[in-house]
């Protein structure tokens, strides 16, 4: 059984983010392109993890450069470089996991106005990114994660570009999910027709 921390985005309600019906009839966050959600719970511990998986479903309404998540952003008063960030640019998905002296950059593709399931997995010395249950990129990355004193922020990237669209089922696991587990999560929650 995977030991995980489930961050249901609806628990971190912000007056700037509205909620609408999403996957499995639940409510999910709708980002207008001018707001983000901040989760302070992970501020001082995330960079100490040797393994992790970040899962999220998102349905972008614009494919210009937008941020899905980061834990480093100067405009919040926290000037740390991010340990992790995920952005999209014209359908190109880009994730970055930083160590103290270098970073791994992984790529994938997302589709406009459709639900996309993204999993970023760090398993000790390997970084992997999955899109819709399939491996899209992998890179070796040995060493300790870059410390950041910033909270995890959803709906914005380290470049301060806001996400426009919907997000649902954001999960952070303190373990590296296997490809079989990632694929299983995708099949279990895959929306019919996007």
Automatic annotation (TrEMBL):
InterPro entries: ConA-like_dom_sf (IPR013320). Pfam families: Laminin_G_3. This is Uncharacterized protein.
């Amino acid at each position: 059984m995977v030991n995980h921390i489930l961050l249901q985005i609806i628990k971190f309600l912000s007056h700037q983010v509205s909620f609408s019906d999403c996957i499995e009839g639940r409510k999910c966050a709708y980002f207008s392109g001018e707001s983000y959600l901040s989760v302070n719970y992970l501020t001082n511990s995330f960079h100490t993890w040797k393994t992790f998986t970040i899962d999220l479903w998102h349905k972008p309404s614009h494919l210009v450069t937008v941020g899905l998540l980061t834990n480093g952003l100067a405009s919040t008063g926290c000037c740390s470089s991010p340990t992790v960030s995920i952005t999209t640019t014209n359908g190109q998905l880009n994730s970055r996991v930083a160590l103290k002296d270098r970073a791994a950059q992984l790529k994938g593709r997302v589709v406009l106005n459709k639900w996309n399931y993204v999993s970023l997995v760090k398993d000790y010395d390997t970084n992997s990114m999955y899109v819709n249950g399939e491996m899209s990129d992998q890179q070796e990355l040995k060493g300790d994660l870059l410390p950041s004193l910033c909270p995890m922020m959803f709906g914005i990237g380290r470049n301060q570009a806001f996400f426009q669209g919907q997000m649902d089922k954001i999960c952070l696991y303190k373990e590296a999910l296997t490809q079989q587990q990632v694929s299983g999560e995708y099949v279990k929650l895959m929306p019919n027709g996007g």
